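ingest -> validate -> predict -> emit
validate: passed (alphabet ok, no gaps, 220 aa)
predict: started
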Amino acid sequence: MINGDNRDMFLDRRDAGKRLAAALSHFKGEDVVVCALPRGGVIVGAEIAKELKAPMELILVRKIGHPYNPEYAIGAVSEDGQLMVNQQEVASVDRDWFEAEVKRQIAIAKEQRKKYLGGRPPISLEGRKVIVVDDGIATGYTVRASIRFLRKMKPARIVVAVPVAPSDTVELLRGEADEVIVTLIPEFFVGAIGAYYEDFTPVSDEEVIQALESVHEYAS
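emit:
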């Protein structure tokens, strides 16, 4: 699904979140939890949580980048070790490096939970509608790993909502999520999410914490 906004660029992640929230307005008043991927997805997700007056949870799934091109994802791993990988790409890299990188990313995910959420217990997702949010999707490995991780929490429905994604990845996700909502699906995806933002400045840990605090009133 694409909403009615046909602009092909976002000012920044907050602008993307507000525009995406407009496409999610039909969830207002429902039992929804916004599940955002740090760091950039949290800024987008906070705007959606404010619009829907919904709690926001973090999904701590880490991208596994190619050793010679870290921006190119060859897979993703959740904080509990749930893997989603491109088997062909993984077979082409050093096995010891890959296993060490998986362990490193799991450790980073666990550290992020402590840093961003402190001792706050996870929000219960069982029987609730979950909206998975990131600032964009390229290969889709991180979001697909997130979906598999979330299925174990027994939500009533999983909706993937992102500002921008390529059409082939959207089709792939439609086979795994219950619904996929994308603001912009470019006819020719250039391969970099940041190309669709005027400001795609890296998000700091402090900004993630501030975004979580901005929707704290909806926590439940």
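The first helix runs from residue 13 to 23.
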